[in-house]
Specification:
Layout (H helix, E strand, L loop, with lengths): L6 H13 L3 H4 L5 E6 L4 H6 L10 E4 L15 E6 H7 L3 H19 L4 H9 L7
Parallel strand pairs: 1-3
Antiparallel strand pairs: 2-3
């Protein structure tokens, strides 16, 4: 468990994770905001029906790409990465960097309409990505 890291260093890890998104996926991300928060808000916890002992590393809020049917939206979709739960789960800086990257990619997968089952299937057998 890590107890502290500067906000700047954590945000740098998030920026690195965004930069690691394969180009063919990154280029199709539109009208999406990447946010860092310390912890999920009470409203986010309630909407997900999280129990007091459950934690959340990241959250995608918006309309997944397959459901949009070409419509433009006024508000951006949002991917939030939660700093404190990731720090608590991480053993060291490299572990934290990897967890941030995995969490961000997981939330981007939701943007593309993948559910948890499909995300976990892909994580077990990652597809070959051709840029």
């Amino acid at each position: 468990m890590m107890d502290k890291i500067s906000d700047k260093q954590f945000e740098d890890f998030v920026s690195e994770a965004i930069d690691m998104i394969p180009k063919k996926y990154l280029d199709r991300l539109q009208n999406i905001a990447f946010i860092v928060e310390d912890e999920p808000s009470e409203a986010q916890r309630q909407s997900l029906k999280l129990k007091p002992h459950e934690t959340l590393f990241g959250l995608y809020e918006g309309a997944p790409l397959p459901t949009r049917q070409g419509q433009l939206k006024m508000l951006p979709d949002k991917i939030t990465i939660f700093k404190k739960p990731l720090l608590l789960a991480s053993q060291n800086l490299e572990d934290l960097r990897q967890r941030v990257g995995k969490t961000l990619w997981h939330e981007v997968a939701h943007y593309y309409g993948l559910d948890h089952i499909r995300i976990y299937e892909l994580e077990k057998k990652p597809p070959k990505i051709q840029d």
